[in-house]
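Side project, low priority. Logging it here so it doesn't get lost.
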Amino acid sequence: MAAQTAATTTRESLGSLILMIYTFTSVVDADTFASGLGSNVKGFWANSESAETAGDEGVNVTNSAGTFTLNLKTTGAVTLYVLATI
């Protein structure tokens, strides 16, 4: 497990919410990312962007006070989407 830094960050306005899009170039299972959003997070999901082996697809993400843990079976690029209020 290691702390990740986003390669790119995009911020989009969605009315009363913002959509933060974080792109990571190489994530290993159980890596973490501290977004700094704290309890402002309202929803989140992630997509794996690498060519994955059948049976190893997908990424699971959990949130604890704005720190996200990314769990996946293979190492690869991941995009994290976070809906938040600021």
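Brief comment: The chain is about 0% helix and 55% strand.
Revisit when time allows.
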